[in-house]
């Protein structure tokens, strides 16, 4: 029994490309589709479009999390078993994108045994949170818990899991639906950072796209009318020191001033797109020079809006030389969610 992607009882969340409703494209970390069903087994049919790394997909079946490796150049319609010999009764599965746009996958349906039923879905949270950021916001290398506070081990994607990002943990603490508009290696400006070298692509060229990796095909714009957050966290400013840490070397240089102008323009564009949302400007505990946080604070004061806040973690910029592991993400999420809740009545209609 094939449950097609346009089935009315499937529930989706995240920036997902629905141009073909029977073959939606999952691009961003943390985007997901969920199903409630009766039956003793479930599988999924996917196609993978790989740019780099080993690509894993995550799932949670009846509260137990798992992952599977996608075939690197699988082509169309590869089937993967997610559960078999399940107990009689109702089951729930959430299939989610663990990784960023190192790959896209095309969802082509769930497979159930004949005689199974698809059940009405649970409702999404009413609160909405969006996080603009880089690899830390995606949960890259988050599962390498033995390396907490240390540099990353060698890895090829197996430790990356958006479920354990501070972004998604924060959303769960706030009971909010989440969009992770983030990409590993992304800086603010093109030709800086680490994503998609040697012609690096920055957040200015990512934030308004549904498909944005030029190595995986044509770029596609995102329709901002589809979904608007109550709160947007902007966590950009850590990869911007590559190839030159100009903010630290000369805070008043033309390059530094240019970055601050672009950062201010970026925030103001988001404010126009989300006229009722509140914005939290920040970086993370990943090691970086404090001049970037100084620059963000300066821009926040220039914007001078009751909707825009600058937030620093307890160990901002000095917590670890490597990516954020699960315990560190938990601590970040506790601090960030407490700060957001302290802002008062911000979960207004948008």
Rounded to the nearest angstrom, the distance between the terminal CA atoms is 39 Å
Tell me, briefly, the overall form.
globular
Report the radius of gyration as a whole number of Å.
Answer: 20 Å
Query: Which percent range fits the helix content?
Result: 10-25%
Number of β-strand runs: 19
The helix-strand sequence is EEEEEEEEEEEEEHHEEEEHHEHEH
Mean pLDDT: 97
The low-confidence runs, each spanning 5 or more residues with pLDDT under 50, are: none
Strand content: 25-35%
Helix/strand class: alpha+beta
**Helical segment tally?**
6
The profile of the biggest β sheet is:
6 strands, antiparallel
Q: Secondary structure elements and their pairing?
A:
Blueprint: E1 2-3, E2 11-13, E3 16-17, E4 25-26, E5 32-38, E6 42-50, E7 56-61, E8 64-69, E9 75-83, E10 90-97, E11 103-112, E12 117-119, E13 127-133, H1 135-138, H2 166-174, E14 176-182, E15 209-211, E16 220-221, E17 231-235, H3 246-249, H4 254-273, E18 278-282, H5 291-303, E19 308-310, H6 326-342
Parallel strand pairs: 13-14, 13-17, 17-18, 18-19
Antiparallel strand pairs: 1-11, 2-5, 3-4, 4-11, 5-10, 5-12, 6-9, 6-11, 7-8, 7-10, 15-16
């Amino acid at each position: 029994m094939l449950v097609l992607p346009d089935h009315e009882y499937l529930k989706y969340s995240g920036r997902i490309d629905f141009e073909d409703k029977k073959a939606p494209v999952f691009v961003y970390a943390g985007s997901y589709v969920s199903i409630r069903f009766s039956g003793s087994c479930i599988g999924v049919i996917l196609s993978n479009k790989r740019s780099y790394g080993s690509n894993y997909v995550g799932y949670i079946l009846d509260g137990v999390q798992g992952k599977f490796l996608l075939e690197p150049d699988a082509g169309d319609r590869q089937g993967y078993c997610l559960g078999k010999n399940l107990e009689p009764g109702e089951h729930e599965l959430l299939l989610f994108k663990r990784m960023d746009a190192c790959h896209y996958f095309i969802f082509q349906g769930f497979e159930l045994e004949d005689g199974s039923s698809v059940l009405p879905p649970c409702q999404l949270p009413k609160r909405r949170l969006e996080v603009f950021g880089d690899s830390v916001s995606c949960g890259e290398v988050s599962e390498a818990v033995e390396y907490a506070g240390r540099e990353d081990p060698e890895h090829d994607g197996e430790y990356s899991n958006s479920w354990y990002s501070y972004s998604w943990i924060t959303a769960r603490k706030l009971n909010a639906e989440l969009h992770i508009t983030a990409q590993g290696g992304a800086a603010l400006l093109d030709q800086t950072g680490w994503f998609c070298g040697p012609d690096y692509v920055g957040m200015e060229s990512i934030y308004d796209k549904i498909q944005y990796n030029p190595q995986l095909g044509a770029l596609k714009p995102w329709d901002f009318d589809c979904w608007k957050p109550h709160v947007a966290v902007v966590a950009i400013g850590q990869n911007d020191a590559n190839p030159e840490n100009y903010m630290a070397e000369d805070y008043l240089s033309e390059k530094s001033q240019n970055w601050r102008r672009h950062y201010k323009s970026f925030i103001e564009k988001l404010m126009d797109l989300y006229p009722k949302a509140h914005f939290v400007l920040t970086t993370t505990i990943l090691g970086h020079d404090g001049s970037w946080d100084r620059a963000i604070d300066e821009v926040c004061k220039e914007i001078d809006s009751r909707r825009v806040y600058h937030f620093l973690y307890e160990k901002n910029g000095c917590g670890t030389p490597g990516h954020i592991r699960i315990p560190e993400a938990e601590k970040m999420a506790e601090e960030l969610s407490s700060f957001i809740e302290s802002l008062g009545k911000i979960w207004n209609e948008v």
